[in-house]
Give the backbone structure.
Amino acid sequence: MEPNAPRCDRTITPEEAHELRAIVAALPDGATLCFAPGRYPARLLLARSIGLRGLGDGPGAVILDGEHKGPVLHASGDGLRLAVTNLSIVGGSGGPSAPGGGLVVGGSGEVTVSNVVFSGNQSDGPGAQALWASDARVSVDRCRIVGNRGRGGGAIVVQRGPLAIRDSLLEGNAGPNPVVRAANATVERSTIVAASGAPALLLASGSISDSIVVAPSGALAGDAPGKISIARSVLAGAASGFADRGGNRVVDPAAPIFAGSGSEPFAPAPASPAIGLSSPPAGVLDLAGRPRRAGGAAGALEAP
């Protein structure tokens, strides 16, 4: 094995997709299941700690598809550790019996989702379109959560556990509720764009830094005024319930924040108010894999 090769306790191919549930059930606690490139019909119940890793060149090479028959991944159990890396979660469906479409996590534990695309998931119940958790500690790193929908919940809901979102893009998620709802959240170097008529965030406490938050009906809503701190960020829309820690720019949602075209339409426009706000740690990459720079742009993507 190469020094930097991912650990794989078992590798599955698309030809074995019909055995996916049995393969997962047979893995020991803490094992990592790797997926060769391809599409896998998936509605997995996860009752022990596990890693799920795509082996393709980027998250689009491995697709876990719920086929709108239920959540794609449903993990349950206190103390469970779940790591999902380098794949796409699509076609998940939540409703009265399942509080989320893409990934549902019940109980306490630790969940890390990195370099994952959530798209085409839905929830018609009171849960979340892409990711729902009750008490788990949830980290969302370098993810794209785009094109999900639901009448009853936003893209991400974490009821009681802490949530961290870093270097991620959330946009095009349709529905009347906040894109992110959490008891406590840390948002860093991310871009969150709400649909028309919906707030972007509903937080009881937390912090937002080096980010872009856009919502025509309210960029930010806080359950407890002053318990959400914001620094070096762009807020587009009415904002309330936060403590200004400096360096923020409050602008009209119609302002030219994003490029609007090209391979990354949510990269900053040449005159974007996001430019010049952020000074990330050395070596940090943006969502597209480009180096961040001192005096660079807030949000998930560095300015060209």
About this structure: Residues 159 and 275 are 33 Å apart (CA to CA). The first strand starts at residue 10 and ends at 12. The mean pLDDT is 91. The chain is about 0% helix and 40% strand.
